[in-house]
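Quick review question:
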C-alpha cells in the first residue's frame, strides 16, 4: 500500500515538475529582463517612450529572435543531414545528384531540366545554341526528338497533378513553363478544381 502511494506521488511529482519549472523560468525571465533591459531602456529612451514592462517585452522579442535563429540553423542542418543521407543510398544517390546538377546547370528551368534528363544535357545545350528561343510551348513542340517532345509536357502535367494531390494550389502548367531564355518561372497562374459527382 505504501509502495502504491509512493509511486503515485512520484508520478505526480514527475508530471508537475516540468510545468512548475517552466512557470518559474518564465517568471524569472520576465522579472530579470525587466530589471536588466528595463534599466538600459530607461537610460536610452526618453521618458515619453519608456513604460514599465517594456524591458519584459524586449526580452520576449529577444528570446523569440534567438529561437528563430536556432530554428533556421536547425532546419539548415537537418537539410544538410538529409542530403548526406540521400548521397549514401545507391540508386537514389545517382538520380538525386543528376537532378541537382541539372537544376543547377539549367537555372532551375523545369522545361530545360526535364529535356536534359530525357535527351541529355548536351542535346539541350545544342538546341539552345542552334534553335530559336522564346515561348517554351513552341520550343517544346518543335524539338527534333519525339520522345523529348512527349516527355516534357508529361512531366509538367504530372507535377501539377502531384502538387494538387498533395493539397497544394493547382498551378497552371503554363506557370511551370518560363520563356526559354529567362530561366525563371514567370506566370503565377492558379485555377480552381471542380469535381462533380
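Suggested answer, residue by residue:
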Amino acid at each position: 500500500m505504501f509502495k502504491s502511494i509512493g509511486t503515485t506521488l512520484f508520478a505526480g511529482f514527475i508530471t508537475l515538475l516540468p510545468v512548475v519549472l517552466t512557470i518559474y523560468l518564465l517568471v524569472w525571465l520576465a522579472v530579470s529582463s525587466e530589471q536588466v533591459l528595463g534599466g538600459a531602456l530607461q537610460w536610452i529612451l526618453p521618458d515619453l517612450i519608456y513604460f514599465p514592462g517594456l524591458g519584459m517585452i524586449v526580452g520576449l522579442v529577444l528570446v523569440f529572435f534567438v529561437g528563430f535563429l536556432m530554428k533556421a540553423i536547425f532546419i539548415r542542418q537537418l537539410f544538410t543531414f538529409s542530403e548526406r543521407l540521400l548521397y549514401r543510398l545507391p540508386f537514389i544517390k545517382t538520380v538525386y545528384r543528376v537532378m541537382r546538377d541539372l537544376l543547377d546547370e539549367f537555372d532551375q528551368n523545369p522545361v530545360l531540366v526535364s529535356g536534359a534528363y530525357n535527351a541529355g544535357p548536351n542535346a539541350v545545350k545544342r538546341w539552345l545554341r542552334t534553335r530559336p528561343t522564346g515561348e517554351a510551348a513552341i520550343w517544346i513542340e518543335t524539338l527534333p526528338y519525339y520522345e523529348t517532345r512527349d516527355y516534357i509536357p508529361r512531366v509538367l502535367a504530372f507535377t501539377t497533378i502531384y502538387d494538387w494531390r498533395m493539397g497544394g494550389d493547382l498551378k497552371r502548367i503554363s506557370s511551370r513553363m518560363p520563356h526559354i531564355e529567362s530561366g525563371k518561372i514567370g506566370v503565377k497562374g492558379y485555377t480552381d478544381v471542380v469535381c462533380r459527382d
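Why it works: The chain has two domains: 2-87, 108-176. The longest helix spans residues 2-44.
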